[in-house]
Amino acid sequence: MDTITHTLFGLALYGAVDKTHMEKSRKHAYLVTAVGASQIPDIDVISKFWDNEGLYQMWHRGITHSVFLTPLWAGLFVLLSLLLFKVRDPKLFFLGWIAVLIHNSSDLFNAWGTGYLEPFSDIRISFGTIPIIDFVFWIIIGAAFIASRRNKSKSPAYFKYAWVFIALHLIVQSVQGWTIYGQYKDDYDQIALSAGFIPWTYTVITKNETEVAIFQDNLFTEKNLQYELTSAEGTDLNGLFEEKPESRT
After folding, report:
1. Residue 73 within a domain
2. How many domains does one find in the chain?
3. Burial classification of residue 218, based on how many CB atoms lie within 10 Å of its CB (0-12 exposed, 13-18 middle, 19 or more buried)
4. CA angle 153, 160, 174 (to 5 degrees)
5. Can you tell me the mean pLDDT for 46-61?
6. Domain contains 242
7. Looking at the domain assignment, is residue 243 inside a domain?
8. Residue 194 to residue 226: CA distance in whole angstroms
9. What are φ and ψ of residue 115, in 5° steps?
10. Mean of the per-residue pLDDT values for the chain?
11. Reduced to 3 states, what is the DSSP secondary structure of residue 165?
């Protein structure tokens, strides 16, 4: 997901916490943990500062997005809360852990994929059923925010409802995407799915030997062939690689 969506996820987690009897320092610790832990896996962007070969494209969503690293990220924010706000609260660990798990798991549903099982497996897991920017998530969280402004006493409940609707949207999108994927798997050697920005629409990239076909599809209309390409896999690219090493990625 994009940075804004991950930030909204963190704010929605913070909003779901009952803060009625919290002192200000504890509220600050919860806010930093919820939002910070929702962003921390993308710390791999700092590799851009020393990457001269375009390898960032390979590193991004790698080890920092591993499910096995999530407790360490959560522990980091427990330590930060203690150092910055003098707050010691075991619930902060679980809040941070949930935030990182949501970040890493939500990225699985994009077409880019993540190294969810690194370092034990270098496979990139991608479902392709949710777009990088999903405005439905924004609308759901925005509605919860507006409702909470009108009735602050019920604010945690509104954000909990928002999480229910987020989960329902993800399930509906994924079931439709996987159904569409299944309609192609018997006819093509390779298939990749990428959700469109309009809900319930998908781009399906297929390949048989060297022939690539790209379709626009959903469950309610006929599939639409957009492009047909021939993959020139035997092309000698050594000259390009020598001139631009970053093109290897």
Report:
1. yes
2. 1
3. middle
4. 160
5. 61
6. no
7. no
8. 14
9. -85, 65
10. 92
11. helix
Give the other-Cβ count within 10 Å of 111's Cβ: 18
- The tokens describing 15, both together, are 């909003």
Residue 178 near residue 200, CB atoms below 8 Å = no
- Please report, to the nearest 10 degrees, the dihedral formed by the alpha carbons of residues 95, 99, 104, 108 taken in order: 110
Structural domain for 84, as ranges: 3-172
3-15 and 135-150 are packed helices; what angle lies between their axes, rounded to 10 degrees? 30
Asked if pLDDT for residue 181 goes beyond 90, the answer is yes
Helix (H) or strand (E) holding 171: helix 155-184
Query: Is residue 74, in this structure, part of any structural domain at all?
Result: yes
In the chain, DSSP finds a helix count (H) and a strand count (E) of 8, 4
Please give the C-alpha separations between residue 136 and each of 69, 74, 94, 127, 165, in angstroms, as whole numbers.
29, 27, 26, 18, 10
